[in-house]
TrEMBL record:
Enzyme class: oxidoreductase
Species this chain originates from: Lentzea rhizosphaerae
Keyword Oxidoreductase in annotation: yes
Protein name (Swiss-Prot/TrEMBL): Acyl-CoA dehydrogenase family protein
EC number, as in UniProt: 1.-.-.-
Amino acid sequence: MTELDPRLRRLQAQAREWAAEMRPYALEVDADPDAVTRVAHLPALARVAALQIPPEFNPEPLVLGDQTYYLMSASERVVFFEEGACADLGMMLGSPGGPMSGVVVDALGSQEQKEWFFGRLLARPTWTFFALSEPEHGSDAVNMATTLTAPSDPDGPARLNGVKRYVGNAGRAEFGVVFARTGPGPLGFAAALVDASTPGFATTPVRTIGVRGAGLGEITLNDVELAPDRVLGAHLRPSRRGMAAWLRTFNLLRPAVAVMGVGVARAAYEYVLAERSSLRATERLRLERMERAIATTRRMLRAAAAAVDHDPSAGHFASAAKATSARLAERVTLAALDFFGPGARLEHPLLDKLVRDAGSVEYMEGTSNIQRLGVFSGLLRGAFPPLQATLLPTES
């Protein structure tokens, strides 16, 4: 699926309309990240807060004509989040709701855990966190240092200890998902629902150059007590809640994260079109190359989304798309500066912001090194048909 069907085109049109309402606030949120909470009433942000909730828990999905949308599929997410990221990546990442943690809860949570989590999201606009990355190990889950220690008393609480860094919405979130080690090996992992008001839970803002609206922060977990019913997947077999289960969950998330790079690149391309009324022949050629690279990466992402919707274990193509998208965002935004001369970053603050935001795509949901491991794993399994290589954009 590289071309949108009528149903997804309708979703795209609505998302584009909402994105246009976000765009005027981009520089305000960049200057003051707390402004996200003041613009949470905008349709794009308000609707995200009540979407990505499974149908059985969501009485108010998005209805467009005779079509109903929950944003639960990767294919729907890549359409929606490209438009949001094109308007403002920081604002999109800083929106209320459970865009990442909700996917984990839906995959691993019990009926009671899902009711607790999604019920709170539906009650009112609520921010959540997704705490995976660590100061020393980044998003490398294999070397994770945060621990979840089982209780010595069968009726007592488990305890979380560790530090998570670069967590979106860390300071404004009420609750979220924390990933931790329970023991060695691929089955020694756990994900838990944690309330930010729990004693021992503390947050510190992390100053960033880009995506300031995302409100990145550091979370410190110092003997945070955790009731047994807050550990996700406890009702499942160990093999269904271990590393393999996490990877399937991340595969579903990855196309939506990756398409944000396409959105940022497209914003820079459209900025050049809007601000440069006349172009020399060489400039037109460069702009056409940018457009082709964006379109090719978008097709790649849509194909990756369709693949994981069909089979959540097929994440190798999504990994290739994520690495490509991160490179695209940086390359296109930097190239856009050349159309405005040496003072471009000072004279065009919105374009300067896009360049700063583009650099963050590399670190979202795993760096390119992590994604290359996923690609390599797919190559070893023979999971890349030869024709798919034609989807990879050239370095131009």
